[in-house]
């Protein structure tokens, strides 16, 4: 037997009921699970940063720059799982140069570039411009020139210059919030607009994607913020943690409500796809949806965060709880993406049966590749934190 | 002087606005259901506009169509890739529906349900519906999938990036990513044959004339005659894909 088809012959043995013969192999793998996951982390982290800037929430201030750099690090990688999943990865640029106007996917490149180049890069640059100037004067050797280049020749350090930096930065943030909403709402639309798939086809999809993105982004910033403090042996700022926890709690409630509404609507309407979808949820997706997404990723964090809104146990307990919650929520949202992408392909569009998904270890779309694209953003973030240390920024 | 200029420019502006509003109003009254009409009509032109008819009552489930398709179009022989296949539907007395298509029917069918439990059983050949409002064409991010002027949905494999969005968008499961080419693949209605006036391989090989291929614009043609004489339905009409694959005697159980 040709080894390329081994896993498919194995899957063929595990087909339940009837599926169209072309449906045995899943077209979209774990890499496409990662694509909306990473994009969501970006949008969520950015929205947290914007909340801080626009609404001037004092307690969130220490996370502002960290949120932006985290969003940037993940955004640089966001397209990579998508590109490495393509049958013809070297043709990816065709989306940019010959986009097909009716395709929901074709606009991704432009939405992405708008967000990367116009919003995030500019915002970070205006935030750091003054520091670049200062660092280019203070540093020696190569770094002096690196920072000098990063100033792009804008060397002004007067009060007026600083005021302008702030003004433009604020304007970009205001533009950035709808952009972040657009970025991730749009990713939801890529799935929600597929009418052939009853598990995806829902007008709620963009909204659900957006709120779960905010949830995951806030959890990521919580995780990164605590991780940085731990590595730098700094004391965790409890008001900051409590504040992030509070926002995470609120957004998580909205997210859970929206997802429940979608499910309740499906159950109550109970149209022709209802039987197969309820079998999917209670069978193939029981672990990833019931346990990982709902219990671990949503209910447990909700209960603990809810408890913290009324009672404040000792700092140490809250610290541990916040750290665990960030991991739980990040895991839960990952499985939410899994349940959408993989779950949507496990049942047949004939509505008569199921196939299975075997995640391979190596290969173009295996576990190692997926892990690689999850680790890389943390590497980029570490580099960014070294190049642009938020703790060495001048206090204005 | 200044006041006069201002007044006249304001008047001009009001005139333009009134003209535009009136124009819009008139055009919306005279062409109220323009979009709807376009949706249900054939596109303009005199070229052939191809469709397919399948007579379920005539299909004997030999699946020679599925085999001929693989031979003709270099479709991988593994049982995971089909441009054309045959399904055996068995509806049991208790209402249970059993669908089978081992290797697309190419190796033959066996009936797993005892005769006394069968309410009815029939074969349904499947292939691309060559939809006139096809979701696969709509979603292709680079336009590598397109509809030819004859209404045939094709893939340009030199242009396809292999993203698989079209595979997800097809409600009928008619597309797959070719394991060697790594691009989307599907029934081309044997475009290389029909453009030379030869019938598609699956049509030509059918021993019982269960498959009809023809020009939907040709009122005297075989396909239009078939549609006139039979009560035909398309698969999943609720999808509104403008399917051009018409089945005679299609049971509502068939998806």
**What value does the Rg of chain B take, in angstroms?**
24 Å
Helical content band of chain A: over 70%
Give me the count of strands of chain B. 11
Arithmetic mean of pLDDT of chain A: 94
Count of domains of chain A: 1
Quaternary status = heterodimer
Number of distinct helices of chain A: 15
CATH topology of one domain in chain B: Alpha-Beta Plaits
Largest interface: pair, residues per side: A-B, 47 and 49 residues
Largest sheet of chain A: 2 strands, antiparallel
Low-confidence stretches of chain B: 32-40
Anisotropy-based shape of chain A: globular
Instruction: Report the average pLDDT across residues of chain B.
Output: 91
CATH architecture descriptor text of one domain in chain B: 2-Layer Sandwich
Question: Helix tally of chain B?
Answer: 8
Q: In percent, how much strand structure appears in the residues of chain A?
A: under 5%
For the CA atoms, what is the radius of gyration of chain A? 22 Å
Report strand order across the widest sheet of chain B: 9-1-11-10
Tally of extended strands of chain A? 2
| Percent of sequence in beta strands of chain B | 15-25%
Distance between the termini of chain A: 68 Å
